[in-house]
């Protein structure tokens, strides 16, 4: 109960803390909600209580007033609480001001530690909201519409593996793809749409042709019966994409570059990435970790949906070990 009371206290009794819509979480208008489970809300309260004793706490709280930034702020609070409780940390300052390349910048927080002063910047790249994800849904919608226009046979399934960029309007691409698929014989594997896609047409009673993909979308037809999530017999359309990781890695890379600009040049820093798969984050980090531009970055931290990982130059291992393996004070320490 103390955690809930602290959330109510520090965030000024937010409306979303009352269960009126069947879930708890900040609202964006009345149509969209960012749900939080009770355990995470309680933990947030404890983290806020823990950080309330540090300079700059009032500036940190301002971010929670914008629903679109709420989860970003929660990530910043989580990371600040972790670093603030390290035994190697002697002091913490939230939202400090530094002059970087002639401009005022505010990394998330500064800490004084046994290995020296550090600045920490946090970024959440939002891979699920990347334009590649929206693009995929648009392609699915256009192909489905094209299938409906030609009265796609109920007993056939269409599978499309996107292998390259679509260089025409998606509606035109979808129409050409469906027309070509409809003229083929089921089981011809695969039909080619140049470098853009491979297309499979098969009976819905047969197994999926596309079984391995980085990301995909299945369009299923209702049959009034309980079904597994991936059931070929009731799947009308399957779209698979195998180049999405590289696209999102580019987005993560852009976030790393933005984070670097927030870090002062006269002290070491740590860049923390939140809620991004470690495989994608590592791709972006490894392209930059050896660059002289990142000489002042002690390590890149990645929160892969709850688990912390660090990527760093081998020459920085001892310093990072001394910092992170120093032990951690309890969250509710007085």
3D structure, described in words:
By secondary structure, the chain is an alpha+beta fold. Helices cover 34% and strands 24% of the residues. Helix 2 (38-51) packs across helix 4 (70-84). The longest helix has 19 residues, at 131-149. It is elongated.
Helix content: 25-40%
The ordered H/E elements are HEEHHHEEEEEHEHEEEEHEHEEH
Distance between the termini: 18 Å
* Major sheet attributes: 6 strands, mixed
**Oligomer, anyone?**
single chain
Number of helices: 9
Are there runs of 5+ residues with pLDDT below 50, and where? none
Extended strand count: 15
Mean pLDDT: 86
Q: How large is the share of residues in beta strands?
A: 15-25%
Main sheet: strand order: 3-6-7-13-14-15
Summary?
With 334 residues, the chain is an alpha+beta fold. It is built from 9 helices and 15 strands. It has a domain at 131-244.
